[in-house]
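Lab notebook page, bench 4
Experiment: in silico fold of construct C2
Operator: M.H.
Input chain length: 289 residues
Purpose: comparison with the prior construct
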Amino acid sequence: MYKSLEEIVKVAEEEEKSFFEVILEDDCKERAISKEESIHQMREMYVAMKQADASYDAKLVSASGLVGCDGDKMRVAREKQDLVCGDFIGLVMEKALKMGESNACMKRIVAAPTAGSCGVLPAVLLSLEEKEHYTEEKMTEALFVAAGIGGVIANRAFLAGAAGGCQAEIGSASAMSAGAITYLKGGNNRQIIHASALALKSLLGLACDPVAGLVEVPCVKRNVIGAVNALTSSDMARAGIFSKIPPDEVIDAMRSIGRSMPASIRETGEGGLAATPTGLKVKENLKNF
């Protein structure tokens, strides 16, 4: 697994390959499997994302009662054409909410890269497929791009909120998604990694402060901001707007910030929104649930 986004780009340039191909070959080498098997397994993950979206239950509410039904509310608002953001971003928001709620309701999801951030990548990919009719093969290639970016982040920093705050979960998911979008839209390899850098640095310092320690509030709604952030980051990169701080250094900064965060805002449920009067009241009420 690569430890640098710059290294991936250099390999791609030297060998005249796409970002996706470099990651595919690395996966085959690391796990000693064929390209066909690697692609098949990744495609199965994408199919699982589609199934999770299709099986969303608009009436299902989490055991705590904190989340549920919001994905359907967004669908209704979108169908009424009542969104300032427009139909496509509305669709992305809808899917991000649905996936996050499905996770809280213990339905089958794909951790991408974590369960708490499971809505970001599917929201942008499924919405793009629906709008622009990419083939499933192309969507699978985009997942390899996302996986390559996530692998570097995991190597250089972390993906868990307990280790580095929500910047490590939603931030990483957003960075992975921005790169995947850029690949789908025909961006070059440098645009791919700069899109990921723009997405990640926009979410640096994001606390992990789940109310009552549950991956529900504010986690589900943060999937929405991660998905929309990925879209804007990709658009900037493809317009030629690059991160002044190199992508790998942005990841290193995320690691440094995460290590500086007090434990109270690293998934312990002891600080931030979890420590507000309402957050504490929710926690107390759930003790008697």
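Observations: The mean pLDDT is 97. Residues 174 and 226 are 5 Å apart (CA to CA).
Next step: discuss at group meeting.
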